[in-house]
Amino acid sequence: MAVAITKPTFNIRDKLAEIGANIATSQMPSGTIINTAYSEYSTQVHITTTGRRKYATIWTPYINARESGSDFLVMADVQGYVSSSVDGVNMGIQRVIDDSWITLANEVRNSDAANADNWMAMFHNSGLVNYSFSRTRFAMDTYRNYKAGQKVTYDICAGYHNSTQGDMKINYSGYNSQCTAFIMEIKQ
Fold first, then answer.
1. End-to-end alpha carbon distance in the chain
2. pLDDT in tens, 20-44
3. What is the per-residue pLDDT across 2-12, written as a single tens digit (0 to 9) for each?
4. How crowded is residue 150: how many other Cβ atoms within 10 Å of its Cβ?
5. DSSP for 38-69?
6. 78: three-class secondary structure by DSSP
7. Under a CB-based contact definition with an 8 Å cutoff, are residues 93 and 139 in contact?
8. Which residues pair with 185 in a beta bridge?
9. Across the chain, which distance is largest between two alpha carbons, in Å?
10. Burial of 52: CB neighbours in 10 Å, binned 0-12, 13-18, 19+
11. Computed over its alpha carbons, how large is the radius of gyration of the chain?
């Protein structure tokens, strides 16, 4: 006697998606990336001699915290053109909530700071006066006082080192350039 056995169809991808969709961030291990944000900025920002040895904010990307007490990894790339500066360019990433630099030695923004930051980042003492650049920085923000749902904001800043003159254009007009930032929230 033959016995007919029937079984429902089973799609492993659907089952895995169901399981993944039901895991709360509270059940994920420390070090898990639980949230991401991406930002682009393409408007030209012009920094003149008032910006020498100072940082000017280019734009302010943000992420909404998914969980309290997380760390945030911030990555940013700035593209620009410098003229009349032979001493280098640099960029920094600053927490907006307490004005603390997370890539510099807590330098005060918009104040002359000779020897307080590594202006040798790009083209320092290269002999170049006019040049284009693309500068990328990574910074881990371990502030951990952010609350779930809070808007976590960062200033992406740039500047050049010259004691007498200079001119910097971020997202130099006439070229198809843009600055980018990527923020990852990491569970602790």
1. 61
2. 666 777 778 899 999 999 999 999 9
3. 777 776 666 66
4. 14
5. EEEE-S-EEE-GGGBTS-EEEE--EEE-SSTT
6. strand
7. yes
8. 35, 72
9. 99
10. buried
11. 23
